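Quarterly update, task 2.4: iron/sulfur cluster-bound model.
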Amino acid sequence: MSHDRNVETARIETERDQSNPPQQLLDISDLSVTFPSQEGPVEAVTDVSLSIEPGETVGLVGESGSGKSVTAATILGLLEESARIDGSVEFDDQQLLTKTDDELREIRGDRISMIFQETGSSLNPVLTVGDQISETIRTHRSIPNEGISRLETSVLGNLLRSKSHPTNYERSWEQTVELFERVGIPAPEQRALEYPHEYSGGMKQRAMIAMAISCRPDLLIADEPTTALDVTIEAQILDLIDEVQAEFDTAVLFITHDMGVVNEICDRVAVMYAGRVVERAPTDELFAHPKHPYTQALLDSIPSLEGGQTLDPLAGQVPDPTDKPPGCPFGPRCPSATACCDARFPPEYPVTTADEPLPVREGGDDDVPSPRRNDPTGHAVHCVLYGSGDGLAPRRSPSDEDRQNADRGRPETDGGEP
Ligand code: SF4
């Protein structure tokens, strides 16, 4: 861990001690993930801090390659062993990064569940969908496998179900059928007997949600759960997640690149770019007063149903993790970039209200009046446009002038003066 990171960690902990922050279910601090490669270490996630309270929905937003899924995989302990992980991931005051595989397996699917984007590889093709979910229920709920072997549950499952056999298997099967009804799978008793290849994409996603909520998790991580679905099914799935959350007070980490979905279901948002969180805010505040040029570009790319507004897609791509630009990684795509943006990644600046001037900084980073990282009302941004006194750039109001001057077709290599 670097000296800078130690200093920052000490600052965060001091602030926690002094301010008695609200209870957090998930508290990620200064998480960095590095993978080995032939070209040398590749940092996929850098200094990510994020927290979620019980019952809260937090959106983790960004394009593909921004580090969202790596962050989720780190929480669940699903990264390959060669990955180097620095920082802290606390769940209900337990440090997940030091847990053994067995300990993590106990937590996964019980207290933390995940809905994956790609359902095809998430369901076992040789077991019926109902068997897979009922097994999850028996494993993680207080329904022991009394006298029912894996062979019986998989091969003889249909036979057992055809008889009056009031076992724990039967009870878990009843709960499975109830879950199928709950997630809107038609003819649930019949569909539970079918195999994954007999399901449509929407049905598979519903089945995955049934499995994810079968143990009433405290935290549900949904990784692009509606990306492959049409808008009607997407709306139904979002409603379903909302209902489950309300009923069980489940916290949700919703990973997506779709700002429209974020606006619909999230309480707070963290915007990621090139492995870093570049802006975070309550959802209403972020949509009303986006500060980071990347956030503004994401919002500009939301299709409008009202007509009259054109889609303004963001040009360029997230940089290759093996070849990130110096300084602010958004620089090559940023319409407001200046030469000073190349100097270093900007520190985090607080955003007070949309029109209120930022406090003028006197010296170095220690003078930044940053909001507490765990403050759910905090709006903060990593961009030199909002800094002052750090030798990078004068503080200035970026919104109108920068938007007017925005030239999305600017050559990607242009990191010079505006
Ligand atoms: S730091 Fe510079 S390049 Fe990065 S988002 Fe802000 S203005 Fe754009």
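Highlight for this quarter: The pocket of iron/sulfur cluster is lined by residues 292-293, 328, 330-331, 334, 336-337, 341, 346, 383-385 (CB under 6 Å).
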